[in-house]
Design brief:
heterodimer, A: 9 helices, elongated, B: Rossmann fold, Alpha-Beta Plaits, 2 domains, 14 strands, 34% helix, cell membrane (chain A)
Chain lengths: 226, 322
């Protein structure tokens, strides 16, 4: 039996498994992205504004936030995942399944995204910030109407990098029972030597990453007026 | 209109202190264009930033339009700043906003309702000659156009005072000319008081009513441009009309603080029987008046009387030769 025939024969069953795996992956990545933005965006902005000479200088806050972010960034994701298992159990009630995986994924992606936000916001022209001060703008107005809009292309680029990183993290999460495409690749592809599943998951992961990047590039083109 | 008294600004560094402003008194009258000129590092920029308290002076007070800014709490200062426009060297436009939205920005900050904002933005763009660029983004504009947007934005909240931070330094000569003209027009039309800093003498010459020369954090010289030009040994006059030092015997440097209709030189030779030889000269249009400097050699028995005659006529006469 040629491989095409075998694939055709197995496809009905495989496609269902892959379909649900893809949904699980997207589910994990999407929710982790949401939490990364909710926490990472303000964190990244604070990393800039608490600078000496920043909008709200606070060297101590800056040092603490910087240290927290660095701890998050220095742990390999697979280690972080195991390290936060008890927190995951506390929050979700289990450490298995896609919902449980959202906890380590978010914790891993928040500091990653926060640093990217920091870099993007730091790029905003100081003269423009000064101009806003000279117009009598409040600090919160400067964040909302100057820093974020001016950094938007960079923020979107950072968001896409985070999504791509999350896709790869989610595959790792599969290794300890997180579900999704990574789980399929490891259980079916690696442990059961099933190349069909292995390559199918590889293709699907590539498509997801590619789609995220293209969407991101499109948005960046739309919001960038430099 | 702008009153700054005893301004000092000291930046404490690790090893030593840097004195950026060393006791500056600034007095800018209502409706005039006041130019501060000096080398980079002289403290001009710090001075300008102290006027709207982007930098808080270490000591001294600043009042604008009769209100002492240095005594205001944060909220009051924000409100006061809305009455002071500022133009920046690199334009400081928001790249994410269209021209119209950039001009509307200070109005948003001041809480002006949307409909009134749109009408005002239209007027302002008309005023600076960019009505057709309302929907463009700053990146699509030339430097001169960007600065026009910057000026329109600075005028949005109807300020009485405009601060200009090297507004033309990033522009080519022709564009500089047109921006200076615009500032001059706004000064005339709106009675706008303008305080500008520049490192170009030319800017002072073209549009300033008053000027100060700044060096090492303090004013070397300050006053009405025409008065300064008529002051012996004025740095401003020397910088506006750089004449080479002469080693010709019996040379004198003559400064014309205004234009003269009568033929002074021929009268001089006729009445005093002296020989007059022109060595060098420069005539410039300053603050709407033709003024100039002339190096001449005057020889003859009645030289003293001849020079006295010129002084009496209102020229500044200074021995310049050996």
């Amino acid at each position: 039996m040629s491989w095409t025939e075998e694939l055709a024969q197995r496809w009905p069953e495989m496609s269902e498994v892959l379909w649900y795996g893809t949904l699980d992956t997207l589910y994990m990545v999407l929710w982790a992205t949401v939490f990364s933005v909710l926490v990472g965006l303000p964190l990244g902005v604070l990393l800039v504004t608490t600078d000496r000479g920043g909008l709200t200088p606070a060297p101590l806050v800056k040092a603490v936030l910087g240290a927290v972010v660095n701890i998050g960034r220095s742990l390999p994701f697979i280690v972080l995942m195991v390290a936060v298992l008890s927190l995951t159990r506390l929050l979700i009630g289990t450490t298995l399944g896609p919902t449980a995986a959202i906890v380590p994924l978010s914790i891993g992606a928040i500091p990653f995204f926060a640093r990217l936000v920091e870099t993007a916001v730091r790029e905003v022209d100081r003269e423009v910030i000064e101009a806003a001060h000279a117009m009598g703008a409040r600090k919160l107005t400067i964040v909302g109407k100057v820093l974020l809009p001016e950094a938007l292309p960079g923020l979107v680029a950072g968001l896409i990098m985070t999504v791509v990183a999350l896709v790869s993290y989610s595959a790792m999460a599969g290794a300890i029972g997180g579900g999704g495409l990574g789980d399929i690749a490891i259980r079916e592809g690696y442990q059961r030597f099933d190349d069909y599943y292995l390559w199918a998951t590889v293709i699907l992961l590539v498509i997801i990453v590619q789609a995220a990047q293209s969407l991101g590039d499109f948005i960046i083109r739309r919001v960038s007026h430099r | 209109m702008i009153e700054a008294v005893g301004l000092r600004k000291v930046y404490p560094l690790k090893q030593r202190e840097v004195v950026a402003l060393d006791g500056v008194d600034l007095h800018v009258e209502q409706g005039e264009i006041f130019g501060v000129v000096g080398q980079s590092g002289a403290g001009k920029s710090t001075l300008l930033r102290c006027v709207n308290l982007l930098e808080r002076p270490t000591s001294g007070t600043v009042s604008v339009d009769g209100r002492e800014l240095t005594a205001l709490p944060a909220a009051g200062l924000r409100r006061a700043r809305r009455g002071i426009g500022m133009v920046h060297q690199h334009f400081a436009l928001l790249s994410s906003r269209t021209v119209a939205a950039n001009v509307a920005f200070p109005l948003e900050i001041a809480g002006v309702p949307r409909a009134r904002r749109a009408a005002r933005v239209g007027e302002l763009l008309e005023l600076v000659g960019l009505a057709d660029k309302a929907k463009a983004y700053p990146a699509q504009l030339s430097g001169g156009q960007k600065q026009r947007v910057g000026i329109a934005r600075a005028l949005a909240s109807d300020p009485k005072v405009l601060l200009s931070d090297e507004a033309t330094s990033a522009l080519d000569p022709a564009t500089t000319e047109s921006i200076l003209e615009l500032l001059r027009d706004l000064n005339h039309q709106l009675g706008l008081t303008i305080l500008l800093i520049t490192h170009e003498m030319d800017v002072i010459k073209r549009i300033c009513d008053s000027a100060a020369i700044m060096e090492n954090g303090s004013f070397r010289e300050a006053g009405k441009v025409l008065d300064l030009i008529g002051t012996p040994d004025s740095l401003l006059a020397a910088s506006l009309f750089p004449l080479p030092a002469t080693d010709v015997p019996d040379a004198v440097a003559l400064t014309y603080p205004r234009s003269f209709d009568e033929p002074l030189m021929s009268e001089l030779t006729r009445r005093f029987d002296v020989d007059v030889n022109v060595l060098g000269g420069a005539v410039e249009n300053v603050a709407g008046t033709s003024v100039g400097r002339l190096n001449v050699q005057v020889r003859g028995a009645n030289r003293g009387a001849a020079l006295r005659f010129l002084s009496d006529k209102g020229l500044l006469v200074r021995e310049a030769g050996r």
